[in-house]
User: Fold Glycogen debranching N-terminal domain-containing protein from Mesorhizobium vachelliae.
Amino acid sequence: MVDSIAGAITVKSLDLYYVIAADAQIPVSGGHGFGLYFHDCRFIGGYQMTLAGLTPVVLASTAQKGYAALFELTNPDLHSNKNRLIPKDELSIRWERILDAEQTCVREVLTIQNLGHEAHDFPLSLQFGAGFEDIFNVRGLVQQNLGRAERPAWRDGRLYFAYHGADRLRRMATIAFSPRPDATHKTAAEFRIDVPAGAARTIAVTIALEEQPEDAEAGQLNQRPADTLDGVAGKLRTNSEEWLEQHTKLDSDSLLLNSIMERSLRDVAMLRSELGSREYFAAGVPWFVALFGRDSLIVALEMLAFQPEIAAQTLRLLASYQGSRTDRWREEQPGKILHELRVGELARAGDVPHARFYGTVDATPLFLLLLGRHAAWTGDLDLFRELQAPVEKALDWIARAGDDHGEGYLKYRCRSAEGLVNQGWKDSGDAIARADGSLAGPPIALVEVQGYVFAAKQAIADLYERSGEAGRARQLRQEADRLRRRFNRDFWCENQGIFALALEARSRPVAVVSSNPGHALWCGIADRDKGRRSVARLMQDDMFNGWGVRTLATSERRYNPVGYHLGTVWPHDNALVAAGCRQYGEDDAALRIFTGIAEAAMHFRHHRLPEAMAGFPRADFQVPVHYPVACHPQAWAAGTAPFLLTVCLGLEPDGFANKLRIVRPRMPGFVNRIELRGLRVGKSSADLEFRRTGDGAEVDILQTSGQLTVEAGG
Assistant:
């Protein structure tokens, strides 16, 4: 089980992103103990700790706080320097690790305590390694190393690693010790430990990271004040608590729900990142610690009821990277919203297009949809007015993209040799397959993307109307209505009782049963009878596995319980499907999904929802089966629980009217009381208490601030 610590830092005007994956078995097994990422360029550092030549035994590990990790180790039977036996479990070794974002370093303290009745002395060795690898190399997507690594060197008791990248950046790692090692050998620091009975000895290790242009002065590097570990931990703890204080606060009578929510909020806090002065949520650890249009937009949307500020910053940031020209290699087109931004060596050197990559079809309508939903919560038109030019460019791109024959659907076709064959959220190469298992042919119009476009046009129409441009609002609503009529005609599969996954080339339906229609239901594009029949189909046993709705039905030819998008269960996907169920009055289905996802979280460390779970039936193992390479934490998985609460409690804001409607509130069976405090709508807020009843839930309005009106019903 791997715990992760993640976040963002800025050093000398360079935006750097770091990740530490802390696995109790790794630091002492001879492998790499952790990975530190400079956004995409990864420093891999590892300890092979030995005591008198032997490896310690791991007892426990945790990275629950997000900014810190803690390992507890002990000794096997050892022979000391005097060949005396040190019995097993007589030494306690506590390994504390903290990310110091302010100083761009990792601080560690090893405390060795003698629990025995005799003094012990023995050698301790820490073996280090470093490899400056681009994330595309780490993932095996690119097989090349463009730069040059210097030979590791010891100077004045410190160990130095350096790498000269093809992007003309010098990346460095400096390892300092307190006390200084008694001896050094190649990349090993060796200590002679002499510890009386009942006493303890400590070794502090600081791993400082630098990334600078090659022509920068090297003389100023690594000159950092030596903050204590407790001091750093205190500042980080304060920052973490201040972040939590900014959110709507939840309390319930369910320890499980409270724990899931706290974990979710801490995880999105870990994934806060910056480009320039604007924050956004990076997509996930370890593979996607970057700005991703789709992911960053969806998690910002999931968090609107709890933390709406980052949504505005995310929208401004993505608008600043909006496509301005036609570039087939980057899949850039005027008006298109960015898919992925990387600043690693390969991206900077131009060997991959991801320094600014646009290979997604759904980020553009999601950009518009988030802008509309953000306005509904905040009651603020200023952001819309500020971004009106990017809005019109985005709408213009949607009108043109892939619609070769004028059907009015938003489609995609990969045009880059380095691009993605599939460009929706299910973007693996085999994700969009026909019933016979063969791959669908482009151009492809995904079912959920048409829903996003429908909802986006409705949302932007509302903003235009509020801005006094009734003609433009009417035009967008007419376009949305025409899309809805065509969609219900062309995507519906009567024999399946659900909407098709997509329309492929020559407008042929990809008639397989998938979770994607649930997103379209969330957007409200389906006719009511078709929407309700779709929910019923999604909840059948070949789709709902007990933990959630699978990405693809077990009855389909391509089904694979560990296929990335071919049968796995994704928490964020289920949150949007549950919202779709609620949209069509199928509240029991939404609660069943909420309950399954929450009960799955019980079986993951710290109740952290992963990116995805395997699709095996719950009855087979009684626990969710881990997806082998799932990101955790992952942003839109962390946003799942806050969004499910927003949806199931029926929170519908109208910030412009200073009104909050609570429509058909429902609560899952494992919780009887939920209290929300500081729920913000417009410039006002409310404290609410929900209590589960036999046929739903009732709400008490504890207090409101400002002019907010709360209307409860259903």
In short: The longest strand covers residues 200-213. The longest helix spans residues 470-490. Confidence is low (pLDDT under 50) at residues 1-35, 219-225.
